[in-house]
Specification:
This protein is of the alpha/beta class. 32% of the residues lie in helices and 20% in strands. Strands 3-2-1-4-5-6-7 form a seven-stranded parallel β-sheet, with helices on both faces. α2 links the parallel β2 and β3. It is globular.
Length: 182
């Protein structure tokens, strides 16, 4: 995917739970190992676990006012459309300032507005779906993603994608080409 210039800027987004946060951190750590001069920025959900875990891993993070949609009728759901609009606007602002070369999403609350905004702005997006069943956010974003990487190949159909370059192990697939032996 990248013919990686050493000064590449990589934006990562995912969170809400460790199942989204820790894969994003692992991706950033591997890319940092391969491309030490790369710059990284995470976007997460305010007041969620990622706001603590990402800085502990040595990366900067910005927060969005976003949360999940409640599965049952709830007063909190009345705020959801406002949170989406606010988060897309804030994500666009962050993206404009950071100027990423690529945006990687691992699912969760914050990756929806972030990857949506990045795709609208013409920034290549990559989705990493590490779960056995794709979440709502990644299903929504799949059609706009340049690359979709999955842990379970049989789940590609659930993302409704017909992308030729879809990989189960992205760092071994050419998504992050480099001169290291794999």
């Amino acid at each position: 995917m990248f013919s990686m210039k050493q000064s590449i800027k990589i934006l990562l987004s995912g969170g809400g739970t460790g199942g989204h946060i820790f894969p994003a951190i692992s991706i950033a750590q591997e890319l940092k190992r391969r491309f030490p001069d790369a710059q990284f920025l995470f976007i997460g959900a305010q007041d969620r676990m990622e706001m603590e875990k990402v800085p502990q891993a040595g990366f900067d993070i910005k927060g969005l006012w976003i949360s999940g949609l409640q599965r049952k009728l709830s007063a909190a759901n009345l705020m959801f459309p406002l949170k989406i609009i606010d988060s897309v606007i804030k994500a666009r602002r962050i993206i404009r300032r950071f100027k990423p070369d690529v945006c990687i999403g691992t699912g969760g609350y914050a990756s929806g507005p972030t990857l949506f905004a990045a795709a609208q702005m013409g920034i290549p997006t990559l989705i990493q779906e590490q779960n056995s069943y794709p979440g709502i956010t990644n299903k929504f974003l799949a059609k706009k993603a340049l690359k979709i990487c999955v842990a379970y190949d049989h789940r590609l159909f659930q993302l409704r994608c017909a992308k030729e370059n879809t990989f189960s192990h992205w760092w071994k697939s050419g998504c992050a080409d480099d001169k290291h032996d794999h």
